[in-house]
Design brief:
Helix content: 40-55%
Largest sheet: 8 strands, parallel
Shape: globular
Strand order of the largest sheet: 5-4-6-3-7-8-2-9
Number of strands: 13
Oligomer: single chain
Length: 450
């Protein structure tokens, strides 16, 4: 972390926007240019400023479960899958290694238990970016396919549909699927099916990755158990005569439908998707009672009980199942505890003096007992403030209540200080307050971009 990151970034964004606008307007009158610069130099979120009130989100690590992958291999997950994730396939497979000694996050384990329990439960996963939402559905899907492989080597027919709204999201799953299905020696295959999938691919592509179906000809001849596509291509597949063989060989086999980035489906789009899913079930010769539906999003949902009910109804209406079959899984942050007591005697220590402590661990220890630092950190701890995000105005209000300068610059200097101090213990040098910035820029009158 740079020592002055937020404190330099936001003023730079606002200043550059103001200067660029005045330059674009082409005013040559010096008093007018000076007046406009002063008008554009208002505080963030105030009339005239090009930046809205910035919002800071705490990014503490996700809470790990109290069991390891090795233990789950003896109870919940197929041991061959745990082996495959421990020793993934390919040159880039190490990026997706999930060691046997690793502990999954609590929300991942909750999703696995729900999806691998007897019956056909469905799940809505709502958790932040980087929380491992993909593992929430991919691990149980692959575990079930590993069981199917034991009965029928070279599993054929589509068992799992992964629906993504964008081609870029479809392509992003290739390396992970290669890494985790490769150790099965081509018995568990997948296909990324979109407008860029060729009719026939060169032979070397199959030699490079025998666990991937690279072209449409092979997809139609021997449909793989995992099909990653988008709603448009799925629509085409249902009506095109040349794709009929995919449906014929998949009759009664479809058991998983995954809707990633589910927040994209609202209004008429949600209605269209709901109708498409019903046609899919009919075309694949199955019904909603024999399919696991999974929806994931980093955007929808919160800890509000009413929101949970709304999420249950959201997926239930999309899938055509009863809401009591839908489990809502929320990611939970693990906020490191600070066990030492506040020391009021150091309350007068300035930001500059605290930032002057060379070692990040030393700054962490000093901030741990500083009353203002602790107060600012508590703003982002859900157990204290009930939310993990705060606008800059809330930081300024806390500084004002503490008798400290509460300007934009002063508040940003405090946030830079809190994010740059790290704990050198076994927690892996965790920041005193890890933050993500959401900056809102006024691009046109009334239109804001984050």
């Amino acid at each position: 972390m740079k020592p002055h990151y937020f404190a330099s970034l936001l003023p730079e964004l606002a200043t550059r926007a103001a200067r660029a606008t005045i330059s674009k307007l082409g005013f040559s009158n010096p008093p007018l240019r000076k007046h406009l610069l002063e008008a554009f130099a208002q505080g963030y979120g105030e009339t005239g400023c090009f930046l809205g009130d910035p919002v800071f989100e705490a990014t503490f690590g996700w809470k790990p479960a109290d069991t390891t992958m090795d233990a789950l291999a003896k109870s919940l997950l197929h041991p061959d899958l745990v082996d495959a994730m421990d020793k993934p396939w390919g040159e880039t497979g190490t990026e997706y290694q999930f060691p046997r000694s690793a502990r999954p996050y609590t929300h991942q384990l909750t999703a696995w238990k729900a999806l691998l329990a007897p019956g056909y439960q469905s799940v809505v996963v709502t958790s932040g970016t980087g929380s491992g939402k993909t593992e929430c559905f991919m691990v149980p899907v692959l575990s079930s396919l590993a069981h199917a492989r034991a009965k029928e080597p070279d599993v054929r027919g589509v068992r799992a549909l992964f629906l993504y709204p964008l081609n870029a999201l479809i392509q992003s799953q290739r390396e992970r699927l290669r890494a985790w299905t490769g150790p099965f020696g081509g018995d568990i295959r997948f296909c990324l099916y979109n407008g860029m999938t060729p009719e026939q691919a060169k032979a070397e592509r199959f030699r490079e990755a025998p666990n991937e179906v690279h072209d449409r000809a092979t997809l139609r001849k021997a449909p793989p158990p995992i099909l990653v596509t988008n709603p448009t291509m799925l629509e085409y597949m249902l009506v095109r005569a040349q794709d009929a063989s995919i449906l014929e060989q998949s009759q009664g086999k479809l058991e998983w439908i995954v809707l990633d980035e589910a927040h994209n489906y609202i209004g008429s789009q949600a209605a269209e998707l709901a109708l498409l899913l019903r046609r899919v079930l009919h075309a694949f010769g199955t019904d909603a009672e024999r399919v696991h539906f999974v929806a994931t999003s980093a955007t929808i949902g919160s800890g509000d009980p009413k929101a949970k009910i709304q999420l249950q109804e959201f997926l239930a209406n999309l899938a055509g199942v009863s809401s009591d079959r839908v489990v809502v899984v929320e990611g939970e942050r693990e906020v490191p505890r600070i066990d030492v007591s506040v020391d009021p005697s150091i309350a007068s220590a300035s930001v500059a003096s605290l930032a002057g402590i060379a070692e990040p661990e030393g700054r962490y220890r000093r901030l741990s007992v500083h009353p203002i630092a602790r107060r600012l950190r508590d703003l982002f701890v859900p157990a204290v403030s009930k939310q993990s995000y705060q606008p800059l105005t809330a930081i300024k209000a806390a500084l004002h209540a503490s008798g400290r300068p509460n300007t934009d610059d002063a508040a940003l200097e405090w946030l830079d200080l809190l994010t740059s101090a790290t704990d050198g213990s076994s927690r892996g040098a965790a920041p005193f307050l890890p933050l993500r910035l959401h900056a809102f820029h006024n691009t046109l009158n009334g239109l804001w971009a984050c």
